[in-house]
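Might you be able to check the backbone structure tokens below? Thank you kindly.
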Amino acid sequence: MISDRHIKLSETEFRVNSTIEFYSDHASIYDVYQQECVPRYHEMIGTSVRWLGRLLPRDRAVTILDLGCGTGNTSQSLAQTFPEARIWCLDGAIAMLQVARSKLPPGKVEFLCRDIAESGWSRLWPSDHLDGAVSVLVLEHLPFEPYRAVLSELLGVLKPGAWFAAVEGYAGDLVQNIYYEEMADLERRVVQDRTLTAEHLRLIKAESHEKEIHYFASIDRKKQWWADAGYVDVDVIWQYYCVAVMVGRKPG
């Protein structure tokens, strides 16, 4: 287990970008917003984890990376699906990792603070080490060149034949507008239910507009980037308007 001291020391090793700042500021209520206001949030996590669950043995100590783990919701699902697994939670925000650590079972989960937009984040692992990886609503925050670099860097530490499942938002005015309209309906509901106050929601939305950056591309374009990086069997296994789960594996 990486200690709190290690996590704090790691903060000096990366440049905190504005998106990481946004999520750091709202780590304490991240789960409320994601689970109540993001359409099909649990479904996208479940689809990604079930994909790995069909392809990896559940009764032995596989090693799985949650790339951009946030508060650990995906890792919770991984821990339930793979009770013998060693799970790595990697995120750029220490505050998010601290919440994740409070929710996840001790002993088999490791925590690492890195900004994956900066190269070298994968050096902790040797080549061909990870049995699988998953990422939920993270890669869309990377500029396109760092995005492609992350794909290549991850491929180097995956075992031959290992799968990567990534949830992302994709480009498309119509599908994005419909998705955001549904999100707005859910936001109104949480205010009506008093899960969040209207002022609290306003502050979240205002800071999101100021700091949270997205870089959307088409599904076809990103499929090509995955193939260019060396992934095979790249496909979309689930989609809801502009959000989709893309999978690919390392050859071998």
Notes: The chain has one domain: 4-249. Strands lie at 63-67, 86-91, 109-113, 130-136, 158-169, 232-240, 243-249.
